[in-house]
Amino acid sequence: MKKVLILGVNGFIGHHLSKRILETTDWEVYGMDMSSDRISHLLGNPRMHFFEGDITINKEWVEYHVKKCDVILPLVAIATPSTYVKEPLKVFELDFEANLPIVRSAAKYKKHLIFPSTSEVYGMSRDAEFDPENSELVYGPINKPRWIYACAKQLMDRVIWGYGMEGLNFTLFRPFNWIGAGLDSIHTPKEGSSRVLTQFFGHIVRGETIQLVDGGHQKRAFTYIDDGISALMKIIENKDGRATGQIYNIGNPTNNYSIRELADMMMKLAAEYPEYAAGAQKVQIVETSSGAYYGTGYQDVQNRVPKIENTKNDLDWAPSVTMADALRHIFDAYRGQVAAAQALVD
User: Fold this and answer.
1) Rounded to whole angstroms, how far apart are CA atoms 310 and 57?
2) Residues 149, 44: Cα–Cα separation, whole Å
3) Over the stretch 91-119, which tens digit does the pLDDT of each residue have?
4) HSE-up of 31 (CA within 13 Å, CB side)?
5) What is the pTM of this model?
């Protein structure tokens, strides 16, 4: 019976992973986060152990549980582009500095560290597919703070790799635009506060204008959360030690769409639901510049397609959820929250 420590257990990945673990295994989950709204339905389970805390404050609790558990997943991070541009130091302090002691504890107590790298580490690589073993990592100039997130994550990847050279059992995974219910709050009308799909969804629900940054021509390979969690479960299981010392892209190359295409798909789908149709009819799609939307420190990637051969082979895994099904699952999940989200306009 594995003991799995999830720091950031109430986050998008954390709450979906906890649910899957409790439903399909006999493993125990030890989780910390600053709130518990997404995991409240799991707290009655005797194998779910939750502590309300902060990794930057409750350091003794964290170290004790790293020592106690078998598998460590430090999922606490800022992962919203608007924050990279506006508050780069905050991103570095949490994503790198606050996570470094956890990595060191995992090495000290010889645990399996499963660390969330990011698809952003590839930066503006020109490769048609981003290869975890061969692609060059290309970033913009220092006056584009958008890259501090990617840079902090890359440095952590390199530190973890260094600990691996000294015996740390680690796996790095790079999520490619995982989407699903519970990604961000649809009740937050502030621009740039959530990731693109939730941003658009909130605008549709509230009948607001959708802004396409730089025309929305940039593409992303979207991955439904259930597919991502299935890969993570295989990494935690780590059958025959196959995942040890590996870097895995976890994404769906067939769901590669532009942001403009995403907006169009969501608008068409919204028209099929009585709960969303009225809001969608009020929505206008307009173009804006990245400078106007994010600030001058932003820079974007036009294409971001994962190479997943080693992920598929090592983990006996493959993504299976189409973009159409993924979006429908999300629209279905939020049907009961439409009135609350609309009320925020007032």
Assistant:
1) 38
2) 36
3) 999 999 999 999 999 999 999 999 999 99
4) 33
5) 0.94
